[in-house]
């Protein structure tokens, strides 16, 4: 299974948000987009819609979760 993670390249353009057929992307504090892993269908539509190449693909759930935490911690509050 593929895990999709939005990283620091996100410009908050909302393309992935509107493209996601599962509505598995949310905007957090108006500063970053986040994929809701429990809702994600792993279809890759968000990945294809991102012009900023801000979505990374991981084959391992633990690696994806670590990337999510790193990105959340790197954002200014």
UniProtKB/TrEMBL annotation:
GO terms for molecular function: [formate-C-acetyltransferase]-activating enzyme activity; iron-sulfur cluster binding; lyase activity; metal ion binding. SUPFAM superfamilies: 4Fe-4S ferredoxins (SSF54862). Residues 2-30, 31-60 form the 4Fe-4S ferredoxin-type domain. Pfam families: Fer4_10 (PF13237). It comes from the Bacteria. Keywords: Iron, Iron-sulfur, Lyase, Metal-binding, Oxidoreductase, Pyruvate. It is an enzyme of class 1 (oxidoreductase). Its EC number is 1.97.1.4. InterPro entries: 4Fe4S_Fe-S-bd, 4Fe4S_Fe_S_CS. This is Pyruvate formate lyase activating enzyme.
């Amino acid at each position: 299974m593929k895990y999709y993670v939005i990283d620091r390249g996100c410009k908050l353009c909302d393309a992935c948000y509107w493209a996601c057929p599962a509505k598995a992307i949310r905007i957090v504090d108006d500063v970053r987009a986040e994929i809701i892993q429990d809702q994600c269908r792993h279809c890759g539509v968000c990945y294809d819609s991102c012009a900023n190449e801000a979505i990374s693909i991981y084959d391992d759930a633990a690696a994806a979760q670590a990337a999510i935490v790193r990105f959340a911690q790197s954002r200014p509050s």
